[in-house]
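idk why but the lab printer keeps eating my pages so im just putting this in chat instead. protein + beta-D-galactopyranose:
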Amino acid sequence: MRRLLSVLLAMLLTCATLVVPGHALTGGEVTYDKYSLTVDGRRIVLQSAEFHYFRLPSPELWPDVFEKFRAAGFNAVSLYFSWAYHSPAPGVYDFTGVRDVDRLLRAARQAGLYVIARPGPYINAETTGGGFPAWLKTVPGRARSSEPGYQAAYREWLHRINPIIARHQVSEGGPVLLYNVENEYQVNTDAAYMQDLQDQARADGIDVPITTNDCCDAGSWSSTWASGPGAVQLPGVDDYPQSFECATPDVWGPWGEGLTEKLRDDIPVFAAEYQAGAIDLGNVGYDKCRELTGPAYMKYFYKNNLIQTGATMFSYYMGYGGTNWGWLAQPNDVYTSYDYGAAITEARQLTPKYDEFKRQGYFLESVAPLAKTDAIASPATSGTAALSTTARANPDTGTQFVLLRHTDRAATGTDGTTLDWAAPDGHYRLPAQVKGRDAHVLVAGYDLGGQRLAASTSELLTHAAIGGRDVAVLYGTAGSPGATVLRYASQPSVKVLEGAVRAAYSGGDLRLDYAHEGLARVLVTGGGRRPLLLLIGTDEEAGRFWRASTPTGPVLVRGTELVRSAAVNGDTVRLSADTVAAEVEVFAPPSVRRLRIGQDTARVAAQERDTSGEEEVRVTPTASGSLTGVTRAPAPVRLPELTGWRAHAEAPEAAPGFDDSRWTVADHTTTNSPHPPRTLPVLYADDYGYHYGNLWYRGHFTATGSETRVDLNAITGLRGDYLVWLNGRYLGSAAGGVQADSGDQATPPNPDPGPGHFDIPAGLLKAGKDNVISVLVANMGHNDDWIADDLRFKQPRGLVAASVGATPIAWKIQGTAGQDKVRGPLSTGGLYGERTGWHLPTYPDKSWKAPTALAPGVTWQRTTFRLDLPKGQDVPIGLRFSGDPSPAYRVLIFLNGWNVGQYGGDIGPQREFSLPAGLLDEHGNNTLALAVTAERPTAGPGPLSLFAYGNLRSTR
Ligand code: GAL
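predcted complex ->
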């Protein structure tokens, strides 16, 4: 009996892990019509945000990001899958550990998010090769075409990734809702290729609608190929109206109005990638990118897109950007951080952009008629021409949605109007006001739970039926006037609990007039309807609300930093929430008397989470029928200082006597590369199987004695360099080349990429004997293939030309040695220290000495530190370089063996590096190893310290 009970209990616990209460996804068939997607017969407005698992190599943190998406009202996540991340060599694929995409898709489902699966094969994404593995550079045949070499390669990838995606589709009870082929495929017109991607997907069991993301304008794929072979079922369009000029965040919409085009009459408008951040092309730091794409931009552009185009499918790029750890960056566009100025920072912190997503996301989630609307005549804005309106209505319910904004989209002033509104329930004249670079979506004729919202010039955040009454949250700009009209069969009783709200009843209309200030509270009872608690706040107040579903109905919460999930059991509401010391308020059914924070019912049941931090909050009931209390402060955190550094110089490869007998002979005279070699032998690193990170070359030559100069060309990608020695003597360094990066096929390739000319000092050459040139080249990663011309992607890396007068040189090359099975192909390069494990925590460095000033070449510095962060708290840790980054050196940063980033004056503006939990042991010993490559004598990087990005009590 006992055994039976424990089996039953175990079954119950397993079930509990499958579904977060109230976040269960609807399964079944995915269809669509001209209005929206439909899942199992239910229309949905798709509100998705992009996430790159390969930029957060800590699977234990994926649920945190997904729960944060869900808590902002997102119902989907868009996932690129990076071919390069999984495949170190042809035929070799790895989906384990940080590359476990089954786990990723389970985590999305667990958080209640649908998935747009985007396996490419080409993904762009500012990642190395645009997602193409570098070995593909050596495969004959134009990439992104149906040429046989490329076709065999991409089919290999698709047949590995597709079956994984297929088993997580909605039809299988999983989260995958859409499947995206290719990426902004616009220059080629290879319909057979586009068709084959779809045929392969179908053959591998993909049954959801297939989409593709078109780029930018009508010349792109889905407009040209709307039908016939290669046409895609449900295409969408990418829009980046704010550009990537983060240095000028006040410039408004330099790339246009940002209205997503409707591509075909039979499909919904799908904003497949809508700008929600930016790459930092100007190296000004991501805070500026967050400003460029901040709440004002989001309010204006996103709401415009919603109402002017009637779009019902949105995917915002990025929701969380992450880190280009290891050699993940496409070096011409990005440095280590891929924070992207997104709503959630690289260190998983929520920003004001997150609040704006939440305000819009809750609205989309709460108001079902938005999924099906047609354009209608819009209300007049009497008294001013500065403002204008656009409107849509749901043809079944009549519910109207009115966009109110400035006529001149760049206007910065505040203007008021009286809206002359022919709403479904009557004709209303209501005051409204809009500040510059803002936009409001106003609702009329809406069955709001048990209420009838006739019209309002406040925006609707959300509404919830809680304990037999409706609780609705309206909001507007602080100080602006607003009015709301509700319909009743008879005069209701109105009690203003807080704030200054005037109520008047006439002919079935209850009209409330007010200014948006703080959080006003109005209780309406009688009038033939169930009670209504109306909360009317400013934008800021609205942003403080959280909505969570429970099996017994929704709850609303104010004042926590986050609510991940909630459950109501008897007299207790339990919140899985992140908190600081603050007043919190919970709107829950009247039976609830107690509030406990810190427990995630589903996961605790599955014993996946630590409950030691659970907190009983002492609460008191309020006149609004809610409970308030004050949450505890998180325990303070003290981080250790980084001391006890030990250093050791390397680069024996520079010494003439170094044994390179086991290095690869570089003697090819031909290459598959479309870029012809300038000198022979071919020295392109990829041709010898060395694809990522630093490279060494050693060239032996018998000197005539009359040589005067070493002439080299190296292509590294932007931010790269190379260092040169002759017979052990350092000759100097040069910047690596980028080669023609114009993207313009008419532009001839740069004849002299990354040149370096090094005079040979008198007396250094040994005439008639073996002389050795040693070259250390930083391969910064591979170009993308954004315009599908193949040439940019296939640009070689490493030395592309080398000569010492006319004297023949015999070359050897060495890159990464072996594969790091845990960290994957993109973590480790070919430095001596990397080849011999100096970056690994286990390496015995006891004999190393205290650091001194650095000579040109490579020096490693290592230290360890111990952490014991408070349990039940989320304290993301970073590493800060306090000095100014100097072009004299570049630093590879290894945390417990993982290459977490690169620092240096030539790399980018970044001085703080995220050390994500998972790679970081939050309760144990950690090893930091820095590989410093100095181009000239230098003191090296300045003092380093650990810091906390935040400190919350958390159920992360
Ligand atoms: C899009 C592309 C994305 C990303 C973005 C800029 O054109 O599809 O992969 O590169 O631009 O961040």
